[in-house]
Amino acid sequence: MKGKTKRGKEVGGRCVNVRSGHGSKGHQFKNGKVFAVGSYESKFSVESFQEMFRYLVFTFLKELLGELQKTIFKSQPEDQVAAEIHKTRVMRPFYEHVSQGRSACLISHSTCFSCLMASPEHSLPCGHVICTPCLLAYGQRQDRDAIEITSCPLHSGRNFRWIVYLKPDAAGVRVLTLDG
């Protein structure tokens, strides 16, 4: 962005102020120094980026589908291959970018951040909580009711060996009460 200082001298730099900060402060560098006066300027708009966004999503999905088709021929089940591709190529880069190394801030007890579809039920050693379908997709069945998961699907932190015991389908919820 090019602007003019209060004395009319032309300067260039990147302003760090958001739209609301421009009213009183003008354009500022990261260090807080005001380098120009003027209103908020942005070349970005949702409308102008909409077609490009659709194209980028379509291209990425086409690339992932090609990778899935290439990998399926190695006699692995399609759902396991798809889960691994989703974990390594989609979720990890996204959450690493969003959290900027602070993966603990991405914990929800109302929505599974792995699929964004179900309620999370199973805590992992890293602190993240995932739903049963994601646990089944990213873990390995050890027993009828035991699933072993060795890494978090949300970030590429340390590996662990974690066994989660599922409640059998026929089991109901019971509450023990002691009156007395």
Q: What level of helicity do the residues show?
A: 25-40%
Share of β-strand residues: 5-15%
Q: Find the structural class using helix and strand composition.
A: alpha+beta
Total helices: the number is 4
Low-pLDDT runs: 1-10
How would you characterize the largest beta sheet? Answer: 3 strands, antiparallel
Strands of the biggest beta sheet: in what spatial order? 7-8-9
Sequence of secondary-structure elements: EEHEEHHEEHEEE
Give the total of beta strands: 9
What oligomeric assembly is this protein in?
Answer: single chain
Shape: extended
- Can you give the mean pLDDT? 79
Report on the structure:
The protein is of the alpha+beta class and 180 residues long. Among the domains are: 2-36, no CATH class; 76-165, no CATH class. It has 4 helices and 9 strands; from the N terminus they run E-E-H-E-E-H-H-E-E-H-E-E-E. The protein has helices at 22-25, 46-72, 78-99, 132-138; strands at 2-4, 10-12, 27-28, 34-36, 122-123, 129-130, 140-141, 146-149, 162-165. The protein has a 3-stranded antiparallel β-sheet with strand order 7-8-9, with helices on one face. Strands 1-2 form a two-stranded antiparallel sheet. Strands 3-4 form a two-stranded antiparallel sheet. The longest helix is centred in the first third of the chain and has 27 residues, at 46-72. The radius of gyration is 25 Å and the shape is extended. 12% of the residues are buried.
